[in-house]
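dude i think i finally got it to work??
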Amino acid sequence: MKRSRSRSSHGTVTCRGKPRAEAAMAKRPHQPRAPRWASDRRALVVEADPAALRLCCDILEAMGFAVATADSGIAAVMAARKELPDVILVDLQLRDVPGREAIEWLRSNPALLSTPMIILTMSSDDEADVAAIRPGASMRKPVSPLAMRQAIRAVLR
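look at this
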């Protein structure tokens, strides 16, 4: 799979996915086709934990998304400006800024105002704050692949 990385002092931004023509040529007969609703979709995952990041990316890629990742709030803002994702998954525990602040930065971009966000949290204390940010769009970690797929489908409707 083709990967491009850029590193700055603000975090790591990783873009994964293939151009449409290259992806079509690389399909193998035994691979399931991506759902029709997920074609040409982009996702941004903002997660500092490498294991959780990998899980989120695997789930989104299996759903047919091209995935960009960021491990900090500042990197998330830069990636979101570049990629203009269709859905954003944000962890509240980031390494440079609180996740709530990163969400505010993302929401300040007019192009992302209607972009659905799914907020990932580890503790039940955060869930009340998450409900204030966006009701019904949070998931407690560790995430279940089935629950994540359902949540993504629900926010994209």
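Helices lie at 20-26, 50-62, 73-83, 99-107, 125-133, 145-156.
im so relieved honestly
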